[in-house]
Amino acid sequence: MKAAILTLALVITFVQADIYLHNPRGSNNRLDEANRERNNANRLFDSQNNNRGGYNVGSVYYYENSTLSLEWTNQHTCGDQNADCEQIIQYMCDDRLRDGSSTNTIPDNPTRCNNYDCNTDLEFGMHEDFDYYTNCELRSRNMGLFTADRNLRGNTAEYTRQNNNGNRRGYECPEERDYYPYWHPTPWRDIVIFTTDVARCPYYLAESENVKSRFACVLPTDYINMANRNRGNNFIIPITREECEAIVHDDGTENGTTGVWREFTPDPSVGAPECVEAHWSRDNHLGNTVGGFPINYNWTIPNLPHEHCTIRIRYNITTTDYEAWEGVSAEQASRNEQVYNGNQDNLQRRRISPIPSVYERFNFSFDEAKERGYVFRQNPVVKIFPDSPGNNNFGLQLAINTNQFGRTFQDRGHSFAIRSQSEELSSECPTIHNLNVRGKRGNIVQVYPGVEYDFVPNRLVAAVGDCVHFQWTGSNTNPNNNDGQGRAGTDRSNVVLLHAQNYAEGMVKTDTFGHWGNSYPEDLDTTNTSFLGLSRADRQALATLETKQYGGEMSELDDAGTYFDLGPRKITMKGTYYYMCTRNNNFTNRGQKGKIIAQTDPLSLKRIGWPGGVVETPQTTLTVPLGTLSQAVEFRVTDIASPDIAIADIQRLAGGDDMEVNLPENQASGIKKIDPTGQLPQTSRSMMATVGIDLDDPTTTSAVILQANENNFWVFEPLETEIVDGRAVAQTDSGGYFVVSTPLQYGLVVGIPVAIVVILLVAIIALLLVIYFRVRPEKWSSAKENVQKTQMKIKRSFAKQI
Asked: What's the rounded Cα separation, in Å, for the pair 4 and 12?
């Protein structure tokens, strides 16, 4: 429970900075409104977002260990030099968590709830529960947290810089929302932290509630309820051990009950979150990131089955005018049990500390900074010229609103379920990819800041043998005047394979099914065309949505239900598949199409940056240590089953089908590919990634990893290799192709660098000369005499020139 340390005083922003979750469907406090604006911005949480964001309710489920592509947009830059940003994605599960059936905010008075129990009143949506909020509104606020110059109207945790009036949104605790990592126990678990300053990642990972205990003062419920009813006594739940254990509650027995300072330990099954570089995004632009794809993160659904879960993304944005982390030492950051002691002198010092952090950068004295406006205050007028003749005391007003110092934005999703896999399913589907639909009915203006329809992920790369879980949900209560096909106000989607390429456009690719340039679907009964190898029944279900509701008017899917679930289906046929939704494909303003690349080889994808990470396939592991990379890299590791496929790909990359590729004849492993194939963006040449490859024969004691990269694709060169527990391990500074070979074989088949060849030839010639002169000593004498004569001639010639 840190004090000023835990301020993630995170943020200082001078303009509104919204964030919207698109997959899973973000709510932005929306339930099922038929208008573009949400009805109640205070329904579940404080988003600070534009009123038009969010999607109507629709619940789905995900299997544990499956991969879910999270997608979102944020208004202001992240991952760029002109701002400092953190984005934290979290989830929580609770038996009573629900979306509710009313847009009204859940009451904070149990007498207004069914059976006098707001926690179980199904009318109201609820994430955090009544007891959590009651503890927050009675608990002392952490006096060390950054509050800028705001006048907080109370001293409990419901009063913060961002919520100085103590307003309530659902049962959210304002102090927990505004500061991360938070010092008090919460129901939220971290998934990933994105940051523009990855040097803070070790701190985040160490302080995450996933891995580090929290402490709190635990008091009897009836004692808290009594205090809640009698607010006039100014009772506040303390946040120090000493004050907590000093409380004695007279419960009518001889012993009574004292306050208990309790440790809340993390669930070991949750595990540490990830921390990576923030995706680059453009300022004032709720759009895609580099490459034209949405900002995204692939979340592996945890092994924590539960029917009632939700997800949230928190967004903290700042300029660098004020150092939000100033004064936070490693020692302070590690003290979880210490809290701010309320010393008034220290409090005053902390409150004025932001001012010097501005004016000292300009080498101003405090008085000069005040006079010229170089202090943090509401809409300051800064005099960029000193007072002198001709300047006329010229000043420029800045649009700085101290209400936005420490600004946090968030969006949350609707409820979803995490379900266990049966033994049969886990055996049939070792890897499950969730394929969903994002967006809502309307054109780009009508749905903004939401998005139009798309498949998520829009481009899925998977392996034959993986499974795809087709599932999506929609709504019947979109605004009736929003553009779209089919019955007004309704969302519907289906999946059909696009028709094949009509005419040649460059090289015709094999194993390619469908073409993005078409708007007509493939004939479902075509015998030589399939979709991922799915059965005809599955292809028909995806097209007609018949698994849930079939019949009535289906030309535009009007009489189908809003929800569709095919369940996981195994990919049995390799290829590149282009597919579409027949309903939402009006070329003038929308096109709902997707692509699945199904390859025969197992693969794994992961984005890794400065904090390091691991990418694993069944046979290969790429380990990138902390501090190795200077920027984030999208890695793909593939176990290539067929040498012919590897050779063809190497030839393609190297630029010639007739190029000779020297693969080892005595391979001790299959061929592996690590993308990107070029040089990694290292922080220094001494920092390397490590590749580990399983040996075909785990008893092998001597082998070497060979690598070919984009500088020399057709030549495999040896890496310094160790054999550890049945696998070959080596370090590398680049991607490319890798294979293990036994040491007696690789030297005969590997392309050897020119320098090594020259050295070997010189050594061989020297050895032959030694043998020759030993056999014919008279030739050595003659040769020696000739050398001496030549030396004399050179000396005489040199003397004449002098």
From this structure: 16
What six digits make up the tokens of 13? 């922003």
Q: What is the pLDDT of residues 99-117, one digit of tens each?
A: 999 999 999 999 999 999 9
Strand partners, 216: 262
Cα(6)–Cα(22) distance, integer angstroms? 30
Query: 123: phi > 0 → left, psi -120 to 50 → alpha, else beta; which?
Result: alpha
Strand, coil or helix: 69 = strand
Question: CA 17, 21, 24 angle in degrees (round to 5)?
Answer: 175
Distance from C-alpha of 254 to C-alpha of 257, rounded to nearest angstrom: 10
**Pairing relationship of beta strands 19-23 and 260-264 according to DSSP bridges:** unpaired
pLDDT digits (tens, 9 = 90+) for 636-669: 999 987 877 777 777 777 766 667 777 777 888 9
Burial status of residue 300 (CB atoms within 10 A of its CB: 0-12, 13-18, 19 or more): exposed
Helix H or strand E segment including 765: helix 754-775
Tokens of 599: 């390859």
**Token pair belonging to 398:** 């800045």
Structure tokens at 230: 């009698």
Contact indicator for 130, 144 with CB cutoff of 8 Å: no
CA distances from 708 to 582, 647, 677, 692 (A): 45, 11, 9, 16
In this predicted model, what pLDDT tens digit does every residue of 548-593 receive, in sequence order? 555 678 889 998 989 999 999 999 999 999 999 999 988 766 789 9
DSSP 657: T
Angle CA 587–591–595, to nearest 5: 135
- In sequence order, which residues have a C-beta less than 8 Å from that of residue 703 and are 6 or more positions away? 668, 695, 721, 723, 728, 740, 741, 742, 743
344 pLDDT higher than 50 = no
Residue that has been written with the tokens 């290539």 in this structure: 640
Q: How many beta carbons lie within 10 A of that of residue 785, not counting itself?
A: 10
Q: How far is CA 56 from CA 129, 234, 244, 474, in A?
A: 22, 41, 44, 8
Structure tokens at 116: 């006098």
Instruction: Give the CA distances from residue 588 to residues 288, 484, 554, 591, in Å, rounded to whole numbers and listed in that order.
Output: 21, 11, 23, 8
Tell me how far apart the alpha carbons of residues 80 and 278 are, in angstroms, rounded to a whole number: 9
Residue 800 pLDDT class (50, 70, 90 cuts): very low
Taking a C-beta distance cutoff of 8 angstroms, is the pair 531, 500 a contact?
Answer: no
Asked if 560 and 545 count as a contact pair (C-beta separation under 8 A), the reply is yes
Specify the pLDDT at position 461. Answer: 94
What is the Cα–Cα distance from 799 to 802, expressed in whole angstroms? 5
pTM for the structure as a whole: 0.85
Contact 490, 475 (CB under 8 A): yes
Beta pairing, strands 306-318 & 84-93:
antiparallel
Please give the single-letter amino acid code of residue 731: Q
373 near 395, Cβ under 8 Å?
yes
Question: Does residue 318 carry a pLDDT above 70?
Answer: yes
Q: Among residues 79, 13, 472, which one has the least CA distance to residue 282?
A: 79
Q: Which residue has the tokens 């694993």?
A: 616
Tell me the Cα Rg of the chain: 33
SS (H, E, C) 429-495: CCCEEEEEEECCCCCHHHHCCCCCCEEECCEEEEEECEEEEEEECCCCCCCCCCCCCCCCCCCCCCC
